[in-house]
Amino acid sequence: EEEEEEEEEEEGENEEEEENVEEEEEKEKEQEEEEEKEQDEDEEKRVVEVQG
Predict the structure, then answer these.
(1) Torsion of CA 9, 10, 11, 13, to 10 degrees
(2) Mean pLDDT value across the chain
(3) Where is the composition biased (Acidic residues) (predicted)?
(4) Which of 21, 34, 38, 40 has its Cα between 20 and 30 A from that of 48?
């Protein structure tokens, strides 16, 4: 009977860990997108300067 309880606890912990991993991955993805956007804006500014 005790073993069953332990297994259920472990499953709950694993689910929490998976959620945390997903959140981390989402944050990293957002950060990368933000950096790409900044780079694009910088490039646009350079192009405008060169054209101007």
Answers:
(1) 90
(2) 91
(3) 1-43
(4) 34
d(CA 43, CA 52): 14
Task: For tokens 């689910």, name the residue.
Answer: 15
CA distance 33 to 41: 12
Residue labelled with tokens 């694009």: 40
d(CA 32, CA 2): 45
pLDDT digits (tens, 9 = 90+) for 22-47: 999 999 999 999 999 999 999 999 99
Which pair of structure tokens corresponds to residue 22?
Answer: 């997903």
